[in-house]
Amino acid sequence: MAEIVMLFVRLVEEGAGQQLVTCSKNGDTDVTLRILYCGICHSDLHCIKNEWTNTVYPVLPGHEIVGVITEVGSKVNKFKVGDKAGVGCMVNSCRSCPSCKQESENYCGGLILTYNSIDTDGTMTYGGYSDTIVVQEHFVVRFPESMPLDKGAPLLCAGITVYSPMKYFGLSEPGKHLGVVGLGGLGHVAVKFGKAFGMKVTVISTSPSKQKEATESLGADAFLVSRDSEQLKAAMGTMDGIINTVSAVHDIAPLIYLLKPHGKMIMVGAPDKPLQLHVFPLIMGGRILAGSCIGGMKDTQEMIDFAAKHNVAADIELVRIDYVNKAMERLAKGDVRYRFVIDIANTLIAA
């Protein structure tokens, strides 16, 4: 059960007013997490504004949740009270379909998301802009002691979203050339993982002003301005793979030409309108265009452990809970480097 404890929330959607949400009890296989930090994902903004046309109001976002376990059920084996842990984008699945059996719960047809989803008992799930959450232990991630909780929170969405396809599609091998399209919440983490894997990393962006931060702050090896046709021409056929993080409509054909024969471009951004593509760039190079959605629980734990070992964490701006509406306005304008994280423990007062 992904519910929250006794809390008044002012929804961002105009006219929604205040909503009291109550928490279910901790079950035999559940853990209760006192939330310390919660990242603000662009998906939260999409959902609040109903841009994907599936929002059920009142909605309480947040799926980059980190805190301390305060209660465990009688059948819980992996956690104890006091453990540092996190909850990402999903809180339940059928656990019996082929995807679940292959530890890809993220592709389960019965996947239940952390918020804006109907749980198995018919109740709505609510997310991490709150002080407590109760979740089945299978969907909880243990946080290593060396991982800072505030900077680690965004990895539960942004991190696994780029890590999983890099591993699955063979874009984690040292010496390979990785392109990262878009330098935002997802993109900057993809750069860090790419370098941790020992890859050559090129950032591709519409903003020339991001070159310095990409190469000097994040360690990218090269930078391309996607609107500069000469730069793109010079880089044609040089990349083994591309992680495309852009969530706005954009022309992907010039990006596909950057791939070597049999190269792969993986879409992890989610534009709200269809993209257009002629198939010839794919056919003539045997190139692959694929998509990826977060990752399973095994991959998520592996990602957090890898990130802790290699000092990979998100660059964040820590904000108070009463700053969330302003943060959403700034996020819509791309005015964040690179992830807002809400300081729940120090700024949220439960009703």
UniProtKB/TrEMBL annotation:
Primary enzyme class: oxidoreductase
Reactions performed catalytically: (E)-cinnamyl alcohol + NADP(+) = (E)-cinnamaldehyde + NADPH + H(+); (E)-coniferol + NADP(+) = (E)-coniferaldehyde + NADPH + H(+); (E)-caffeyl alcohol + NADP(+) = (E)-caffeyl aldehyde + NADPH + H(+); (E)-4-coumaroyl alcohol + NADP(+) = (E)-4-coumaraldehyde + NADPH + H(+)
Pathway note: Aromatic compound metabolism; phenylpropanoid biosynthesis
GO molecular function: cinnamyl-alcohol dehydrogenase activity; zinc ion binding
Gene Ontology biological-process annotations: lignin biosynthetic process
Keywords: Lignin biosynthesis, Metal-binding, Oxidoreductase, Zinc
Pfam families documented for this protein: ADH_N (PF08240), ADH_zinc_N (PF00107)
Xref: PROSITE patterns: ADH_ZINC
Matches recorded under InterPro entries: ADH-like_C (IPR013149), ADH-like_N (IPR013154), ADH_Zn_CS (IPR002328), CAD-like (IPR047109), ER (IPR020843), GroES-like_sf (IPR011032), NAD(P)-bd_dom_sf (IPR036291)
Domain of life: Eukaryota
Positions of the Enoyl reductase (ER) domain: 15-342
Transmembrane segments: none
Quaternary state and interactors: Homodimer.
PANTHER family on file: ALDEHYDE REDUCTASE
Family stated for the protein in its record: Belongs to the zinc-containing alcohol dehydrogenase family.
Full protein name: cinnamyl-alcohol dehydrogenase
Source organism of the structure: Musa balbisiana (Banana)
